[in-house]
């Protein structure tokens, strides 16, 4: 406990020195004063109690520690990964792909992350992890990984496609459209990119106010307030044949979208 008080005193003394420097704004000074009061109360120390002072100030201790600490070299600073690291990264990527196939997306993220640690210059690892993030609903994480993949390989069409999908999931349809277009520039025969582009463009149009009231000038509010129309609609929806057709259309619609997004979520 005595060492804790010495540390708390050093921190408070440092804050006091910052107050005395005159380099802080009035708001910053007020914040520091509150912080000092909180620390003094929490640890039961006072800046006036010089028995808690140590031989070196906090900045001096910090400067000495940073000089003595050896810098750890990372892969990016020490050169390219070794052959063993590259092979292990590929194995981890394969493990991640296997987890994606069984829909264990959290485990897939872990494997891809380990592969990235060994080889952070492989765009595929980031792009695959983006697919896993999207499956988990972490679209912001997917966007970040697609940005990294594009930074490594600006001609990687799949990264642009997955970026478009993540942005569309965040309702950023305008940005999604631009990425889908770029994906099509790089892979013009990809039907999935074409379909996704059309959907994003349609979503953009739906988000814009229509000059003719939305349905070709039809007064939707008037129709919904018309008792005769609502009675007809209710009878129609209760018709067993209509319900059967609606069910078939729903099943077809869901299958279409599963097939359409298959290539976007396909991993390498």
Automatic annotation (TrEMBL):
<dbReference type="InterPro" id="IPR019734">
    <property type="entry name" value="TPR_rpt"/>
</dbReference>
<dbReference type="GO" id="GO:0060090">
    <property type="term" value="F:molecular adaptor activity"/>
</dbReference>
<feature type="domain" description="SGTA homodimerisation">
    <location>
        <begin position="4"/>
        <end position="63"/>
    </location>
</feature>
<keyword id="KW-0677">Repeat</keyword>
<feature type="region of interest" description="Disordered">
    <location>
        <begin position="66"/>
        <end position="94"/>
    </location>
</feature>
<keyword id="KW-0539">Nucleus</keyword>
<dbReference type="GO" id="GO:0072380">
    <property type="term" value="C:TRC complex"/>
</dbReference>
<comment type="subunit">
    <text>Homodimer. Homooligomer. Interacts with DNAJC5 and DNAJC5B. Interacts (via TPR repeats) with HSP90AA1. Interacts (via Gln-rich region) with SLC2A1. Interacts with HSP90AB1. Interacts (via TPR repeats) with HSPA8/Hsc70; the interaction is direct. Interacts with BAG6 (via ubiquitin-like domain); interaction prevents interaction between BAG6 and RNF126. Forms a multiprotein complex, at least composed of DNAJB12, DNAJB14, HSPA8/Hsc70 and SGTA; interaction with DNAJB14 and HSPA8/Hsc70 is direct.</text>
</comment>
<dbReference type="GO" id="GO:0042802">
    <property type="term" value="F:identical protein binding"/>
</dbReference>
<feature type="repeat" description="TPR">
    <location>
        <begin position="123"/>
        <end position="156"/>
    </location>
</feature>
<dbReference type="GO" id="GO:0005634">
    <property type="term" value="C:nucleus"/>
</dbReference>
<keyword id="KW-0597">Phosphoprotein</keyword>
<feature type="repeat" description="TPR">
    <location>
        <begin position="157"/>
        <end position="190"/>
    </location>
</feature>
<protein>
    <recommendedName>
        <fullName>Small glutamine-rich tetratricopeptide repeat-containing protein alpha</fullName>
    </recommendedName>
</protein>
<comment type="function">
    <text>Co-chaperone that binds misfolded and hydrophobic patches-containing client proteins in the cytosol. Mediates their targeting to the endoplasmic reticulum but also regulates their sorting to the proteasome when targeting fails. Functions in tail-anchored/type II transmembrane proteins membrane insertion constituting with ASNA1 and the BAG6 complex a targeting module. Functions upstream of the BAG6 complex and ASNA1, binding more rapidly the transmembrane domain of newly synthesized proteins.</text>
</comment>
<dbReference type="GO" id="GO:0016020">
    <property type="term" value="C:membrane"/>
</dbReference>
<keyword id="KW-0007">Acetylation</keyword>
<dbReference type="Pfam" id="PF13181">
    <property type="entry name" value="TPR_8"/>
</dbReference>
<keyword id="KW-0963">Cytoplasm</keyword>
<dbReference type="Pfam" id="PF00515">
    <property type="entry name" value="TPR_1"/>
</dbReference>
<dbReference type="GO" id="GO:0006620">
    <property type="term" value="P:post-translational protein targeting to endoplasmic reticulum membrane"/>
</dbReference>
<feature type="compositionally biased region" description="Polar residues">
    <location>
        <begin position="66"/>
        <end position="83"/>
    </location>
</feature>
<comment type="similarity">
    <text>Belongs to the SGT family.</text>
</comment>
<keyword id="KW-0143">Chaperone</keyword>
<dbReference type="Pfam" id="PF16546">
    <property type="entry name" value="SGTA_dimer"/>
</dbReference>
<dbReference type="InterPro" id="IPR011990">
    <property type="entry name" value="TPR-like_helical_dom_sf"/>
</dbReference>
<feature type="repeat" description="TPR">
    <location>
        <begin position="89"/>
        <end position="122"/>
    </location>
</feature>
<keyword id="KW-0802">TPR repeat</keyword>
<dbReference type="InterPro" id="IPR047150">
    <property type="entry name" value="SGT"/>
</dbReference>
<dbReference type="InterPro" id="IPR032374">
    <property type="entry name" value="SGTA_dimer"/>
</dbReference>
């Amino acid at each position: 406990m005595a060492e804790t008080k010495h540390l708390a005193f050093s921190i408070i003394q440092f804050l006091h020195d910052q107050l005395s420097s005159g380099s802080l704004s009035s708001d910053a000074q007020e914040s520091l004063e509150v912080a000092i009061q909180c620390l003094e109360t929490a640890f039961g120390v006072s800046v006036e109690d010089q028995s808690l002072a140590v031989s070196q100030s906090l900045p001096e201790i910090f400067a000495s520690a940073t000089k003595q600490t050896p810098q750890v070299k990372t892969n990016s600073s020490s050169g390219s990964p070794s052959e063993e690291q590259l092979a292990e990264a590929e194995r981890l990527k394969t493990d991640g792909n296997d987890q994606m196939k069984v829909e264990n997306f959290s485990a897939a993220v872990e494997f891809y992350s380990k592969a990235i640690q060994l080889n952070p210059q492989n765009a595929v690892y980031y792009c695959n992890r983006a697919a896993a993030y999207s499956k988990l609903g972490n679209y912001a994480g997917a966007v970040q990984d697609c940005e990294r993949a594009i930074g490594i390989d600006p001609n990687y069409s799949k990264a642009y496609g997955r970026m478009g999908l993540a942005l569309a999931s965040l309702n950023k349809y305008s940005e999604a459209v631009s990425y889908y277009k770029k994906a099509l520039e790089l892979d013009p025969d990809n039907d999935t990119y074409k379909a996704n582009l059309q959907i994003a463009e349609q979503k953009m149009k739906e988000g814009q106010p229509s000059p003719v009231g939305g349905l070709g000038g039809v007064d939707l509010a008037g129709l919904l307030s018309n008792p005769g129309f609502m009675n007809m609609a209710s009878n129609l929806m209760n018709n067993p044949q209509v319900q059967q057709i609606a069910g078939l259309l729903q099943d077809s619609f869901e299958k279409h979208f599963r097939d359409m997004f298959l290539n976007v979520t396909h991993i390498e």
